[in-house]
Amino acid sequence: MITVSGLTKKYGDRTVVDDVSFTLEPGTVTGFLGPNGAGKTTTMRMMTGLVAPSRGSAMVDGRLYVELPNPGAVIGTLLDASAVHPGRTGRTHLRLLAQTIGVSVGRVDDVLDLVGLTDAAHRRIAGYSLGMRQRLGIAGALLAEPPVLVFDEPANGLDPEGIRWMRDLLRSHAARGGTVLLSSHLLGEVEHTVDRLLVIGNGRIVADASVAELLGAEGTAVRAVDPAALALSLEAAGFHVQHGADGGLVAPGTDPSQVGAVAAAAGLTLVDLRPVQRGIEDLFFQLTTVA
Amino acid sequence: MTETLTMHRPTTHPAVRTSAASLPVLVGIETRKSLSTRSGKALAAAAVVLPSAAMGLAALSGDPFGSASGPIAAVGIFAALMLMALGVLSTAGEWTHKSVQTTFLLVPQRGRVLTAKALSLALMGAVLAAVATAASAGVLALTFGGDPSWDGALVAMTTVTVAGAAFAVIGAGVGAALGNAPAALTGLYVVVLGVIPVAGVFQPHIASWVDLNNSALLLAQGQEETKAAVVMAGWVMVSTVAGALVTRRRSVA
Lengths: 291, 253
Prior knowledge:
The structure holds 2 protein chains of 2 kinds.
Chain A: E1 2-11, E2 14-24, E3 28-33, H1 40-47, E4 55-60, E5 63-64, E6 75-78, H2 90-101, H3 106-114, H4 130-141, E7 148-152, H5 160-175, E8 179-183, H6 187-193, E9 196-201, E10 204-210, H7 211-214, E11 217-224, H8 227-236, E12 242-243, E13 249-252, H9 256-266, E14 270-277, H10 280-290
Parallel strand pairs in A: 3-8, 3-9, 6-7, 7-8
Antiparallel strand pairs in A: 1-2, 1-4, 4-5, 9-10, 11-13, 11-14, 12-13
Chain B: H1 23-34, H2 38-61, H3 69-97, H4 100-106, H5 110-143, H6 153-178, H7 181-202, H8 204-208, H9 212-220, H10 225-249
Helix pairs in contact in B: 1-5, 2-3, 2-5, 3-5, 3-6, 3-7, 3-9, 5-6, 5-10, 6-7, 6-10, 9-10
């Protein structure tokens, strides 16, 4: 388990990460969302010992990252796909990582095959596209099949097939009891991949809850043959009613069975009845704008 | 560039070492890192080959050599200066290419990484300089550059070997301190080959205490050994301590 407690980073008077705390549980994929400059990457770099925090700590099974004897065996990290020497071949790069982590050199071919880079492995990384560098970075993170994966914007440059593959990879990793922290600006992608959302804005955590909790039903959208009569009936039943521009009605805080019951009691004919969910994009802007 | 690449599901469960990589393993990895890029290979090859080429040209076209130790020292220090660049690239190159991020993610004890780099560079510097000086001495012997005296040649060759190690470590230290390969390479060569010799014209006594290049030459020719050794050791100490202190504190972007 990873426990982040009060992580803070200040550069002079500027606080870029402010008292960030959360825990990452095994068996879950946690999405880390926030606008550019909100502090996601700095938080991840403090977690992995690359940047010294001004205050607070991040513990991996009770130890600081820098105290882990062989971190690559515990946490597979992909923070920046371009952080590789462009003059080496993909295979040489992975062999160096494999020797550092202490896995067999044969494992390099396994992960190259896993990410679909076998045919490009003999080429210098300078000739790789961004998507290929992401795959190489993912391959490096998976060399030891570590229990924890920390990926910063891993979908950058991946094609739709690659994004789907990565989603399956992360989901299956969590299903096997692994822990995943995934930062991304692709909100739709996050929504379909994660169990839990951490939202950061202006360096502070502004939401930390399950996807179901954060994106739960907000109300009911309903269309009736006689919308005015339905609106009166709903208000008479104590529900607040909002009128849509297209003649539809929205009853916030209700579920469809309540609205359907009011319509049935009033003998009104409905042509549409469905729950209204808040989209992750709406949630993102609402939370991060307030922050 | 459009490529069709197929990705598969992970299926294996590899055996993984649970302990930290030992220092000898890290030294081996750092050595492979240095010699796995074109620039590293080119510098290593140049350090070995160019002194012999220079010796051959000098022996064939210049005045006859009175002593072998002088030309052996001169072309040997030429090799050491190229090995200094190998040192710079081993540390500053990692910051320039950002590969230092991966390095410190896998070995977060930065002091261990720098120690491994210093040992690797000392080893590579000594081996490459030894080969270079042996080859250049061989060229001198074959070309009979004026049938020189070989007195002191062994001292010169030993000094060149030590200088190869020292210059490579100095390069690594300065590279670690500056964290930028072009700046470290330019700055180091400007200071060693430009600023200090020019300063020597105006303040010869002060300059002699910081002149790395001339100290190595003097040491190789058995002159002012103690002072020359102190100057070289000072450069090694100051550059490695500066590199270690800066690396310890620097954030990895």
